[in-house]
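Appendix B, example 12.
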Amino acid sequence: MASSISSDSIAILDPSVLRPREEPLDAVAEPALVVRAGRGDRVAFAELVRRHQGKVRALLLRLAGSPSLADDLAQEVFLRAYRGLVGFEGRSSFGTWVYRISYNVYLNHRTRTRSYAALPEDYDVRAAAPDDAHSPPRADLRRDLRAAIAELPERYRAVIVLYYLHEVSYPEIAEILELPLGTVKTHLHRAKRLLRQHMGGGG
């Protein structure tokens, strides 16, 4: 389980508990927000959380499969991000950096629970890919794809989720997963081959 979070920490993460903003931050460039947040501006950090919490939770949900676990891990991600902003050098975007934290938090959880060999019992394959309820045949395909993604080895699942569902570039995936670029491309190629096999398309 994720570490417990104090009420003070919740105040860091939840924009709703902050005082009304003195200035609108919606249009402020992200690098400027990062600088302000690194200087201790909690309102600026809350805006960063607002911009990225949906994507972070979606990534964790697709990796972990459990909505409640994704929520717990997402809180841990942003706590780590807040504490680590002082050392953030800006060599990558904030989004790439927080994705890397997300993946590491997920791996740490898996290590603690010693569950590398299998998916969690409550793994929800519906979390593995977006919904499409408007076309029954397409919905069936989506359902099969979710199941196929859920059964991929973990290293392949992460690459597929980041590349296709989060539209992250090869270099960014390499940075997030801390892998050589060539390894990322190899993982993606093998993952696609496994998906084709699962979906009945052969090798």
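The two ends are 38 Å apart (CA to CA). Residues 128-136 have pLDDT under 50 and may be disordered.
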